[in-house]
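Input record, target 12 of the design panel.
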């Protein structure tokens, strides 16, 4: 999972959100809350998250094709 925004959000807004989200992960109280809620969080910068999403999308697309999960 991660934080996603619709296309067209201004780059300045995205940068500000990223800054605040990554800052939250620096707070022990937030990390504790995440662990307590059963969340395995690994904060990534937006560029790194994009790479992760693209890789996972390709991986699952391959599985869908391989196992015929399309009609």
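The sequence produced for target 12 reads:
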């Amino acid at each position: 999972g991660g934080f996603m925004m619709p296309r067209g959000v201004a780059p300045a807004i995205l940068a500000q959100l990223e800054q605040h989200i990554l800052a939250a992960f620096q707070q022990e109280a937030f990390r504790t809350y995440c662990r307590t809620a059963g969340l395995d969080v690994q904060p990534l910068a937006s560029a790194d998250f994009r790479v992760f999403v693209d890789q996972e999308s390709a991986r699952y697309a391959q599985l869908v094709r391989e196992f015929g999960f399309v009609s």
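The two ends are 27 Å apart (CA to CA).
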